[in-house]
Amino acid sequence: MKIEIIPCLSDNYSYLIFDKETDTILIVDPSDFNVCDKIIKKYKKLDYILNTHHHTDHVDGNLKLKDKYNAKILGFEGDKDRIPGIDVFLKDNQKFNVGNLGFKVIFIPGHTRGHIAFYFEKNKVVFTGDTLFSLGCGKVFEGSNEEMFNSLNKLKSLPSETKIYCGHEYTKKNSNFCLKYDSNNHSLKEKIITINSKLKKNLPTIPVLLGDELKTNIFLKCNDPNIKHSIGHKDYSDLEIFSKLRDLKDNF
Ligand code: ZN
Ligand code: FE
Fold this sequence. Notes:
The chain has helices at residues 33-40, 56-59, 62-69, 145-156, 171-181, 186-200, 210-216, 225-230, 238-250, and strands at residues 2-8, 12-19, 24-28, 48-50, 72-76, 88-90, 95-98, 101-107, 116-120, 125-129, 132-133, 136-137, 163-166, 208-209. With 252 residues, it is an alpha/beta fold. A hairpin with a 2-residue loop joins strand 11 (132-133) and strand 12. Helix 5 (171-181) runs antiparallel to helix 6. It is globular and about 55 Å long. Bound molecules: zinc ion and fe (iii) ion.
């Protein structure tokens, strides 16, 4: 499995997946037809379009790509009325094979009510859209904080060597927030050095390892007594800490 990162719009990432053995090409969240098509052209075909959720910055290339390459569009069944051109209605926990590749659908509502992740278990890769970012998580637009918290916990339970490919390059801004409330975290400080050097060279900070995120992403550390202490609510439940952090981040 080869993955090409395609920067789109101001800070979106689309991803092209190539399975060489079977000559199968997939794209995850095509934000922009022209930008994605420039990459797809090299392969001369596109078999599948995978959408994590219905927001325009993740589906805007759907119809033109489907039209040009006759690709099949896969999205969550609950969003069949909101994902342009959808052909295949995916269910939570459903396993789906594409060429020699296989992924599992993980239903992770919160950012939107129909958000899913694509988990390629054998390849140890997960596409998390706008739910889990490097050092952050998505805004809670349609669901509740509790749903988002539970969705992040689902992703937390994947093997720590899983590579996370998310929908946006928000890492730097997220790191500033993490540092504010987790200022003694050495792993975080080391990570920030790496982030800065990548961004300086105009490279994506993505993918990241789940194991590293567990140590550095404050939204995955709501059970950490140090974090509870640092935001001044030692007695809060993990969910209350999550809600507080989400609130602070929304106004950061
Ligand atoms: Zn979104
Ligand atoms: Fe987005």
